[in-house]
Write a structure and sequence with these properties.
237 residues; two-stranded antiparallel sheet; 3% strand; flat; binds heme C
Length: 237
Amino acid sequence: MSETDDKTKKVYTKADSGGAKTSSMKAGKKKQKESTIGSIILFFIISLAVSLIIGWVIFPELLYSKKEQPVDFNHSIHAQQVDNGCESCHIFREDGSFAGVPKLAQCSDCHQEVQGDSPNEKVFVEEYVLKGKEVPWLIYSKQPDCVFFSHTAHVKKAKMECAVCHGPMGQSKSLKTYEQNRITGYSRDIWGKSIAGNKENSWDRMKMDDCAKCHEKETGRKSSVQTGKDACFMCHK
Ligand code: HEC
Ligand code: HEC
Ligand code: HEC
Ligand code: HEC
Ligand code: HEC
């Protein structure tokens, strides 16, 4: 209370002591105010830039650990070598179930020895074929263990193209770096490339909602995720 009184007093005494002094003082005060606003804006811009860098660059770097595939695989070379397209390697077994990533036995007929001068083929033949060791492929689309997914239902029954969920992987010349979420342990392909979770293509992301949204679109049936009819145990066993 007394402090404010003192300040008011001071201002009055100063204002009394001559006009010239007052106006220069006012200008000074104005400048001071402008520079304060200036530094607030500057501070805001710098903080914004810092948080954007943390959010879009540093956070994903910290959140995902990167792993290279044990052998690089070229889908596009092999498409011309096999007779039965994708299903030459990604076979459906007799019982209708999907075998997923091919086993070594499906490769060794063509790769008993190094044929070309590709360093990838050399590694593949020397480290795996000749030693009879399965390649520990990293699975980009791997869902958590609690999720039940059937390729037979989607590819055989519903006649869906691989690319709808996997993108142009079947035409790729090289395998991309595998990224694993350090917190959940899931592949980055579940959440998707975009940190904000944006989705442009049907294969950009494969979270619970993405499964459910397509089911609603394709069948008109809402799932339990959208409090519709399909039970949780359709996808969780
Ligand atoms: C000569 C064998 C071969 C043929 C033919 C082949 N693939 Fe593959 N494919 C592989 C191997 C080996 C991998 C393992 C790489 C990996 O870990 O993803 C793979 C991985 C994939 C994956 C990634 C699975 C994942 O989530 O990691 C997709 C999708 C895929 N193939 C689609 C296709 C499509 C579509 C075609 C047909 C256009 C095709 N493939 C033809 C051998 C083959
Ligand atoms: C029908 C025969 C055939 C089958 C089956 C086959 N390959 Fe090949 N593969 C080839 C031919 C031909 C080349 C090209 C050889 C060269 O390097 O000149 C090749 C090239 C490669 C290369 C080197 C390509 C590069 O990156 O430059 C790798 C690695 C490879 N194959 C791995 C595999 C794996 C893993 C499988 C099993 C999933 C497989 N191949 C199945 C015929 C086959
Ligand atoms: C409706 C979406 C969808 C379609 C269509 C689809 N996939 Fe998949 N695919 C998935 C999902 C989801 C997974 C992960 C499954 C899991 O982890 O249980 C997967 C996993 C895979 C894997 C890895 C399996 C493993 O060994 O763990 C391969 C290889 C693959 N898909 C290839 C294909 C090919 C080839 C086609 C076309 C013939 C195809 N997919 C069609 C959604 C799909
Ligand atoms: C259309 C298929 C589908 C249905 C129906 C579904 N889920 Fe899921 N759920 C998934 C998939 C795929 C994932 C993994 C990807 C993710 O985390 O979004 C998942 C993940 C989860 C998780 C997180 C588990 C983890 O380890 O990350 C919980 C909890 C869950 N679901 C509960 C439910 C409940 C409760 C229901 C019923 C109200 C339900 N889900 C119905 C597909 C489904
Ligand atoms: C792009 C569309 C699409 C996506 C994405 C998709 N599905 Fe489906 N799914 C279908 C269609 C179409 C059917 C067949 C529906 C029917 O006729 O009942 C189906 C059927 C199923 C069935 C029932 C199989 C049966 O007949 O018992 C399960 C389980 C299922 N999907 C799980 C999943 C899970 C889990 C995911 C996500 C990881 C997923 N789906 C993603 C389109 C999709």
